[in-house]
Amino acid sequence: MAASVEHDSLESMEAPQTAVEVEETKTFKDLGVTDVLCEACDQLGWTKPTKIQIEAIPLALQGRDIIGLAETGSGKTGAFALPILNALLETPQRLFALVLTPTRELAFQISEQFEALGSSIGVQCAVIVGGIDSMSQSLALAKKPHIVIATPGRLIDHLENTKGFNLRALKYLVMDEADRILNMDFETEVDKILKVIPRDRKTFLFSATMTKKVQKLQRAALKNPVKCAVSSKYQTVEKLQQYYLFIPSKFKDTYLVYILNELAGNSFMIFCSTCNNTQRTALLLRNLGFTAIPLHGQMSQSKRLGSLNKFKAKARSILLATDVASRGLDIPHVDVVVNFDIPTHSKDYIHRVGRTARAGRSGKAITFVTQYDVELFQRIEHLIGKKLPVFPTQDDEVMMLTERVTEAQRFARMELREHGEKKKRSREDVGDNDDTEGAIGVRNKVAGGKMKKRKGR
């Protein structure tokens, strides 16, 4: 009974309690994290805990199951990694924790944080995701790492086919971006995983939004959980300047080029709705001399990580992405987000624009609205509860770009066509093993071949 009372009081006092705690609690040590891990936080430059960490860590250390409602960039990886490492120090054990994530990039990112936090205590992680050779993963699992970070599909694969690998001794399960794991139709995989891990475990479920599917999963997977919410209902950050542009769809490319010129010197993340459009737009911009790189589900794993690292290292200032990339990726500096294709789910708008104006910096988000997108745009405005202003443009200046853009579009189409033919030939020779986010066995090789020649000229 006492536990449920504590739970209720937490729920009811949620907002004021957080405020008080933020005032009082200044360090990870105050939250109950052991000294070794506090030092690791210092080395990573984590001077003080974020809101979600202040709420979740003490409860996790008490052994409670947790539902964390927090957006990307809120420090939620630390909120589950620190309690898990803390517990691992107390009772060292192999195959101690499993973290499920929707995408491979996020899995690698979480693994990096675990390894950085646990470097002084020798924590070993294995990342088990699609698009990477199964055999080497089986070998990594045979060494029985402490932490397994996986996408559900590939993990099931190993649970069924890798001899000697099981999770029967597992102590912690984390589902990060649970809403997205479920939206990507991994429900059956998650159910299978829940069946083969111990009932007697601690479970942390993190999600940016509380959907019906997430509530159902919560009932199936968590015992008497405590809710830690830090994001209020779908708000977008105050320092974010949001605009829209109403334009005929045939002029989208031209307006994009105009905006990139107008706001030159900033880093951009441009969202497209399909892999194909991401690729086409990247080629178009490269033909016009912009340093643009694509990131989407049809690229092989190594290419995706390569793209991401170039952008992170500021070697490229424009990243074009599908929604694959829009959530959970730790991309530190984006000054401007452009919704080149409006998101079909209004909640995705929140996640996309969440790439900018992070950690107290300001940022811009510009959404292109064509004659076909009006209803979707109204839904977005309704969701965030504000009317967006128009981004100011000089239409005569925009129209002066038309000729150059049309020429670049022609080149981009030709390159895509050539690339498509090359791909057909190579697919007959080679089977493809990409399995994340609907990659339909298509590998993008645009970065090679013709593009390189073009630069050399």
Primary descriptors:
457 residues; Rossmann fold; 2 domains; 7-stranded parallel beta sheet; 6-stranded parallel beta sheet; 13 strands; disordered N terminus; disordered C terminus
Blueprint of the fold:
Blueprint lengths: L1 H23 L3 H4 L3 H9 L7 H11 L4 E4 L6 H15 L6 E4 L3 H14 L7 E4 L5 H9 L4 E4 L1 H10 L10 E4 L2 H6 L3 H10 L5 E6 L4 H10 L4 E4 L10 E7 L5 H11 L5 E4 L3 H13 L4 E4 L5 H12 L5 E4 L14 E4 L6 H8 L9 E7 L4 H11 L10 H6 L1 H28 L20 H7 L1
Parallel strand pairs: 1-6, 1-7, 2-4, 2-5, 3-4, 5-6, 8-13, 9-11, 9-12, 10-11, 12-13
Helix pairs in contact: 4-5, 5-6, 8-10, 13-18, 15-16
Function: Involved in apoptosis. May have a role in rRNA processing and mRNA splicing. Associates with pre-rRNA precursors.
EC number: 3.6.4.13
GO biological process, one term: RNA splicing
Q: Overview of this structure, please?
A:
47% of the residues lie in helices and 13% in strands. It has a seven-stranded parallel sheet with strand order 3-4-2-5-6-1-7, sandwiched between helices. It starts with a helix and ends with a helix. The protein has 457 residues and is an alpha/beta fold. The protein has helices at residues 2-24, 28-31, 35-43, 51-61, 76-90, 104-117, 134-142, 152-161, 178-183, 187-196, 212-221, 252-262, 275-287, 301-312, 346-353, 374-384, 395-400, 402-429, 450-456, and strands at 66-69, 97-100, 125-128, 147-150, 172-175, 202-207, 226-229, 240-246, 268-271, 292-295, 318-321, 336-339, 363-369. The protein has two domains: 2-229, P-loop containing nucleotide triphosphate hydrolases (Rossmann fold), CATH 3.40.50.300; 240-456, Rossmann fold (3-Layer(aba) Sandwich).
